[in-house]
Amino acid sequence: MGEFELIRKVFYRGPSRKTLLGMGDDCALISPDKTLAVSSDMLIAGRHFLPNAEPFDIGFKALAVNLSDLAAMGASPLAFTLALGLPQADDAWLEAFARGLFSVADRYQCELIGGDTTRAPAGAPLTISITVMGELGFGGLRRSAAQPGDHIWVSGTLGGPARALQLLLSDAALDSSPVSSALDRLLRPEPRVELGLRLQHLARSAIDISDGLIGDLGHIADQSRLRAVLDVSKLPFAPVLSQLSAYDRLSLALAGGDDYELAFTADPSNRHALDALSDALLASHGFGLTLIGHMHDGDGVSLVDEDGRPVHGEFKAYEHF
Ligand SMILES: [Mg+2]
């Protein structure tokens, strides 16, 4: 089988059901009823995933991190394009990659409508570039929309994927249940799409946590021209962090990255509704929501303890590899 037929066999799944025209022509055609939310993410082997990662997991994560951006805007997934730079075309690798990719695509009804595949020069890393498109029935959960006094909330737990990566790279035992659930989130993050949709009427601003809470919340603070005040005693630490020192735990939860949870701000009057949503999500999806701070006049992100006293420390983003 030629390379072209292989790509077609692996990625073509029949006529588009969600757009006017899908794969197979010079362009796909989309005629949206609503505002289109568009985002691109590029993943490079050795930088965003380990070069020896399972192809299923690479395909899964490549689309999941893109859907996480749609979730952070409150958008509903519609379609995506895929551009691959492949050092070699290997049938088994491509088929496993496509299985991972489509397991996420099918769950969130996000259709592959086009793309390109190029043979990368010898020695070049595998690169994957995805552009996702979603639909918005409102103005979106923008980073600039936080108000003074807003509560800051975060979904799920923090620091697990970053700790799992440390353990993976140090050849530590990975069989305990807190480690394996952290590893699952590192390798196959579940984008918080349903949460993003539910936040349309409850949150003012949101961001997904890819680089670590402190850095990503810093973008909301900067763009809203406010200060984010985080109570570190409220942070939902991943269970896998329980054996670590207080500093290491804080450092991984604040700056470890790869969490793909949502951080968002909401009017304090929505607290009860968000507590109820948290209970519902815990029952249906296995993660809750935690109130971790508030927005204040000023700038940047500051950390306080449960008595409101400042917590000092340098929490820099981890170098991934
Ligand atoms: Mg993002």
Give me a quick take on this structure.
This protein is 34% helix and 22% strand. It contains 9 helices and 10 strands. The model has no long low-confidence stretch (mean pLDDT 93).
Fraction in helix: 25-40%
| Classification by helices and strands | alpha+beta
Strand composition percent: 15-25%
| N-to-C series of helices and strands | HEHEHEEEHHHEHEHEHEE
Averaged pLDDT: 93
- Poorly predicted segments: none
Q: Taking Cα atoms only, what radius of gyration do you get, to the nearest Å?
A: 20 Å
How would you explain this protein's 3D organization?
- With 321 residues, this protein is an alpha+beta fold.
- 34% of the residues lie in helices and 22% in strands.
- The protein is built from nine helices and ten strands.
- The chain has helices at 3-11, 55-73, 91-107, 160-169, 177-187, 193-198, 213-224, 246-255, 271-285, and strands spanning 35-44, 76-86, 111-119, 127-136, 151-155, 205-208, 227-231, 262-266, 289-296, 300-304.
- Helix 1 runs parallel beside helix 3 and helix 4 crosses helix 5.
